[in-house]
Design brief:
This protein is α/β, with parallel strands linked by helices and about 650 residues long. An 8-stranded parallel sheet has the order 9-6-3-2-1-12-11-10. Helix 2 links the parallel strand 1 and strand 2.
Length: about 650
């Protein structure tokens, strides 16, 4: 698309008061080019660069990435990935074959071609994922072997000398997390239990970085022994981390040149690697999960560790304790890598829902859980009283304990204490020059009073997912007329159905007319002609989908987000929460996405952004239509060109 299209979109966004227009896209979903694809997407590939250039031309101001930590061969969920180590499945292999690139030719072109050609053409997403894991391991082993061999030469090439220098600096700067993360792999291989340390949890190796009293000297000696005996494995681990870190740096430079901010995902969970290395920070008797809610009535037992409140601050009550130091280290790394942060499930930082660890029925346990800091006198959770920040008189017993109104009121001092972890995020972002709007709070079905007070203090909004709106409840938080300027509004996210699939379901269930009436009320302010517009929407599902997008831009929100499947007209679901399915976390943008997107545009089955922006502007009424008459003509012309090629 020409620069004129981007300029047109930018002008329309400004007219609508939208300052952030962000595309949500996880790493595995990026498209690859045929000669570089081993079965999984990477944001650092050439195929990704082509797609991000397209996003720039669509006027996007930012890209929301998912968590980018290391996943395992049996669990591709990014929300179970590592917190410090980056996912080496993201290393783009093709640049490592370029003798003139920043890494030199560490990988042979023949090896890359062999791995690409071996990708399974049949089989499900699990087969492709396993091939990607296998291929990446083989390729990176060759890369490491080449680097070691070339580095040892007396006449090592200048590119290798430079790379070795950068590698030494990288290892020194990140030693605090590189060594524990590498030793986790070393011990897993030694004990034949990669990615699972529970079998050796009761040994000294199971608590090297959280020794019991009296074990400190033995743990330190064992760490030194492992670092010496397994020096090559530790060094290789660090080298792979260097590669993915440097490729991320290239992406940041490219994105900045295109005017695109990169948003990271501050996941609430811990990988097995992080749980092992940081187990001293956690409560032992409780896990974190999701309570029953409107969209998930059963709740979800996540089995995530819970940070120990008694380690937030030091015994003096003033200086940071181990937990806050951990948060500072994590945020310092993330904010050096991203322009903003999405806080995944901020409830976990403010008022986590906890349930007993070790239960034979985790689902029942999570349903009978409680909020860590809001349970002063529960007979089934007496242990939680020591962490309570409220008194029994501040609770509304008519509400379920997971209800948003369980806590009735708070003092400013109580709000401050609830916000201790959350404040580390806001403070770190502010100290590094991030705008308030670049901290995103993924609040969906539930907004406990405690969390609402913490967010309000910092002027932060929540997520509004309009496909979930209850059209029979005017006060429903997902309805676009209830969106506040500081909120982030979207039709769906990575955990919802594609809008295009949903519209088909609405049609099949004969509820399309209800959606049409609501959207006509939102987008056609004058009573005259509204019924005809509603009928048009009800009879044209593609137009109704465009109107659903327009509803976002017609809201008061300054920030609008779209998931890639909704943008491109893809009907598949990326992740079905609470389900174990190989299709989860696997949906990819195909190689020929540009052709497919153009075809879907012609069929009215993908986001036609100029058409959507024109609908949103017209929702401002006669005065807005007059003020933006010229802009509307140009938007209509651009929309027609995308739809009809005219």
């Amino acid at each position: 698309m020409p620069d004129s299209h981007r300029a047109l979109v930018t002008e329309a966004l400004e007219a609508l008061g939208v300052t952030r227009w962000v595309l949500s896209l996880h790493d595995p979903s990026f498209p690859g080019l045929p000669g570089e694809d081993v079965g999984r997407g990477s944001p650092y590939s050439e195929g990704a660069a082509h797609f991000l250039a397209f996003a720039r031309d669509l006027g996007f101001t930012g890209i929301q990435l998912g968590p980018q930590g290391q996943t395992t061969a049996h669990n591709p969920s990014p929300y179970d990935g590592t917190l410090f180590s980056r996912n080496t499945l993201n290393v783009a292999l093709a640049p490592l074959t370029d003798p003139h690139g920043p890494w030199g030719a560490l990988l042979s072109a023949d090896t890359l071609a062999r791995l690409v050609s071996g990708m399974p053409e049949r089989g499900g997403p699990d087969a492709r994922y396993h091939w990607a894991c296998h291929s990446q391991s083989q390729a990176l082993q060759e890369v490491w072997d080449t680097f070691r061999r070339e580095r040892a030469r007396a006449d090592a090439p200048a590119s290798i000398v430079s790379l070795a220098r950068r590698f030494a600096a990288f290892r020194e700067e990140h030693r605090a997390w590189l060594e524990p993360d590498a030793l986790f792999d070393v011990l897993g291989e030694q004990k034949h239990t990669p990615d699972d340390w529970r079998a050796w949890a009761d040994s000294l190796d199971g608590r090297l970085f959280a020794p019991r009293p009296g074990e400190e000297a033995g743990a330190e000696a064992r760490i030194r022994e492992l670092l010496t005996l397994e020096a090559e494995a530790v060094e290789e681990y660090a080298f792979r981390q260097l590669l993915v870190a440097e490729q991320h740096g290239v992406l940041r430079e490219r994105a900045a040149g295109w005017g695109l901010k990169l948003y990271g995902d501050l996941q609430i969970g811990f990988s097995p690697r992080d749980a092992w290395a940081r187990q001293g920070l956690f409560l032992r008797a409780y896990f974190m999960g999701a309570p029953p809610s409107r969209t998930n009535p059963e709740g979800q037992p996540w089995n995530y560790p819970v940070l120990d409140p008694e380690q937030y601050v030091a015994p003096d009550g003033k200086t940071p304790g181990p937990v806050l130091r951990f948060m500072d280290a994590r945020l310092g790394k993330m904010l050096s890598e991203y322009d903003g942060l999405r806080i995944d499930h901020p409830h976990g930082l403010v008022c986590p829902w906890v349930y007993r660890a070790g239960s034979l029925d985790p689902l029942r346990a999570v349903q009978g859980g409680a909020r860590l800091f809001s349970s002063p006198d529960l007979p089934d959770h007496p242990e939680l009283s020591r962490y309570a920040l409220v008194t029994p008189e501040q609770l509304d017993r008519s509400q379920p304990r997971h209800g948003d109104g369980w806590v009735k009121w708070l003092t400013p001092e109580q709000v401050r204490r609830y916000a201790l972890l959350f404040d580390t995020v806001v403070r770190a972002a502010r100290e590094r020059g991030r705008a308030r709007e670049d901290v995103l709070c993924e609040v969906l079905s539930t907004l406990p009073f405690e969390l609402s007070q913490v967010m309000a203090r910092d002027g932060l909004g929540r997520f509004r997912v309009t496909q979930k709106a209850d059209l029979n409840n005017p006060a429903d938080g997902y309805r676009s007329e209830n969106v506040a300027p500081e909120d982030w509004v979207m039709v769906g996210n990575h955990d919802t159905k594609s809008l295009w699939r949903l519209v088909g379901e609405w049609q099949w269930r004969h509820i399309l007319r209800a959606q049409a009436d609501y959207l006509a009320w939102r987008l056609h302010p004058e009573a005259e002609g509204r019924e005809a517009f509603a009928q048009q929407l009800a009879q044209d599902p593609g137009l109704l989908a465009q109107a659903k997008f327009a509803d976002l831009f017609a809201s008061r929100a300054r920030s609008v987000m779209v998931f890639f499947a909704d943008l491109l007209g893809m009907p598949e679901t990326y992740n079905a929460p609470g389900s174990i399915d190989a299709r989860n976390w696997s949906l990819r943008i195909p190689h020929d996405w540009a052709r497919q997107y153009a075809q879907r545009l012609r069929a009215g089955a993908a986001l036609n952004l100029p058409q959507v922006l024109a609908l949103a502007l017209r929702a401002g009424g006669a005065e807005a239509r007059t003020r933006h008459a010229d802009l509307l003509v140009r938007l209509d012309r651009a929309a027609s060109q995308l739809r009809w090629g005219a």
